[in-house]
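User: Can you predict the 3D structure of Pseudouridine synthase? Sequence below.
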Amino acid sequence: MSTGDHRVLSVPDGLAGERVDAAMARMFGLSRTRAAELIAEGHVQVDGSGVGKSDRVLPGAVVDVTIPTLVDPLVVVPEIVEGIKIIHDDDSIVVIDKPVGVAVHPSPGWSGPTVVGHLVGAGFRIATSGASERQGIVQRLDVGTSGVMVICKSERAYSLLKNAFRHRTVDKTYHALVQGHPDPHEGTVDAPIGRHPKYDYKFAVMADGRASVTHYETLEAHRFASLLEVRLETGRTHQIRVHMAALKHPCVGDLTYGADPTLAKRVGLERQWLHAVRLGFEHPETGEQVEYSSTYPDDLAAALEVVRESH
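Assistant: Sure. Here are the predicted structure tokens for Pseudouridine synthase:
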């Protein structure tokens, strides 16, 4: 919300004795509901004092109203976001290293920094394909997941890469530190994922969910946790986190999906240990196979060291 329209009017004789919300609706051309909301939010004063919606107005009383401008949650706000690194940039694509705590694009309920906002703020021209707040976006990483991702600058790149992701020809490799030791040490989780029946911010393995395939192999096995290399065949929201939790080996620090809070505290994590390490695809302009990579950020590297040393 930002301050918007400020209006002051005197109550005409014809509205004397009316309820404040009804009088405001007539005087300012608002609906009764909107008038009542403004009163409840403390944006209305009559003769310098706050009022209740059912209070009555006297003729000549001064009604002072501030009508806040409603901010569209999907508007892209250009702002430079600290920590976003540009790995590669050409006329077709820009490849970035996304830090934790940054959403890819604006969405209802998210008021923090976004990748799209950063690129606009930094003067990048992004493809105009896709919904306005998601222009140029062909893949996403969760707010709490860091790592390498690609954004399209040209329409041709957008259409070719969108297709590549859809047809699963993009190599998406993640590293995940999970609790315990998956058995077998390498394998495939083929289990459909849908929105959680009870919690709308979570996802779960659901019989009627969308097909989801995750391949994993163990890189390091430690006393409390294993470092896995994970390759995604599909790209569902929270896919790795849901599949690992379904195996009873949630990502370390992933309290949303059942991780042990004591272990999270011990390794100093406030988010899931999950990082997009590599992304490989056919370059939309040159047609050659390209691969981009990202190293572990400080919080994940430090947590991994604690696990490595706890033998």
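The chain has a mean pLDDT of 93. The domain at 2-69 is CATH 3.10.290.10 (Structural Genomics Hypothetical 15.5 Kd Protein In mrcA-pckA Intergenic Region; Chain A).
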